[in-house]
């Protein structure tokens, strides 16, 4: 089969489209014929060696964790899915080696769920990591219906999912963003506030009674959010490496079938939409990484297979 690989840590230029053996399908796994693979910043950061102290990497690596496709085979004792089922998932395994930038990927059943019926494969492939990150962050801070949550960097890939999920859960959402993204945030159901000097005062004007929880999806928002929340322990940051030391939750996103199924239900109910900014063929993975690294893409980047 064809797959994107890299043989050592490096830049996007190290990526190659090559022939590799078909993956084996073990017990409680399915073989997925990949239709689309989501691209996330962690993919190129991992390839650059930034997570070497955290994750075990076995070269050559097929990158990618997000997938949407069709079940082609099932392993022993795999009764959850049948050949022909459309699935999507966050296929993060015990070590980094055989990912989703390929024609086929073996996926443990704990990492997948049935694909949202109302979304294309490209749209579905954009959800798993970012959608789970947003939902699990909301869960970690105990966000509940009727509360007010501030999402820092609300127009980004994870932030935009966070807004939609929080709204669907019955929360009031205040989202920080540049002025050019304010109409976009309003369309998702958030109340936008402008980045920059005076941000705390602008949030307090919108919520003079205080906020209940805060999510930092940018990396510089923990202290800001802790100055606003009623309880300092109800702040989470996915991206600040010192978050735990600052008293914030630092979720490490987990593959979870139940959570993926919940996100699929939201999508099928029209409460979770996916903006696919770029859908590129598999052999343009390097370009996809370069686009992702600019930090200027509003929406998801996916590879079509």
UniProtKB/TrEMBL annotation:
Domain spans labelled Enoyl reductase (ER): 10-303
Gene3D superfamilies assigned to the protein according to its UniProt record, in alphabetical order: Medium-chain alcohol dehydrogenases, catalytic domain, NAD(P)-binding Rossmann-like Domain
Superkingdom of source: Bacteria
Pfam families: ADH_N, ADH_zinc_N_2
InterPro entries per the UniProt record, alphabetical: ADH-like_N, Chloroplast_QOR, ER, GroES-like_sf, NAD(P)-bd_dom_sf
Classification via PANTHER family: ZINC-TYPE ALCOHOL DEHYDROGENASE-LIKE PROTEIN C16A3.02C
Official protein name in the record: Oxidoreductase
Organism the protein comes from: Streptomyces cirratus
Lineage per the UniProt record: Bacteria, Bacillati, Actinomycetota, Actinomycetes, Kitasatosporales
């Amino acid at each position: 089969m064809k797959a994107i690989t890299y043989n050592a840590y490096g830049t996007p230029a190290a990526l190659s489209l090559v022939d590799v053996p078909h993956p084996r399908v073990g017990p409680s796994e399915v073989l997925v014929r990949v239709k689309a693979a989501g691209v996330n910043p962690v993919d190129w950061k991992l390839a650059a060696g930034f997570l070497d102290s955290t994750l075990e990497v076995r070269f050559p690596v097929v990158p990618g964790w997000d997938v949407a496709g069709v079940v082609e085979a099932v392993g022993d004792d795999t009764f959850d899915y049948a050949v022909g089922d459309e699935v999507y998932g966050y296929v993060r395994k015990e070590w980094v080696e055989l990912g989703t930038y390929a024609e086929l990927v073996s996926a443990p059943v704990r990492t997948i769920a049935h694909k949202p019926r109302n979304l294309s494969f490209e749209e579905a492939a954009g959800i798993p990591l970012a959608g789970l990150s947003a939902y699990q962050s909301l869960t970690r801070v105990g966000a509940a219906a009727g509360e007010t949550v501030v999402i820092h960097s609300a127009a980004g890939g994870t932030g935009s999912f966070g807004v939609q999920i929080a709204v669907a859960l019955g929360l009031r959402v205040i989202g920080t963003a540049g002025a050019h993204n304010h109409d976009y945030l309003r369309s998702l159901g958030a109340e936008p506030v402008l980045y920059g000097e005076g941000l705390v005062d602008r949030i307090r004007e919108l919520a003079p009674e205080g906020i209940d929880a805060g999510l930092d999806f940018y990396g510089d928002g923990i202290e800001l959010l802790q100055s606003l929340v009623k309880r300092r322990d109800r702040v989470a940051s996915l991206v600040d490496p010192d978050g735990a030391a600052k008293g914030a939750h630092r979720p490490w996103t987990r593959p979870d079938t139940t959570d993926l199924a919940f996100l699929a239900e939201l999508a099928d109910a029209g409460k979770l939409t996916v903006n696919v900014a770029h859908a590129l063929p598999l052999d343009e993975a390097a370009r996809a990484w370069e686009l992702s690294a600019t930090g200027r893409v509003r929406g998801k980047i996916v590879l079509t297979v």
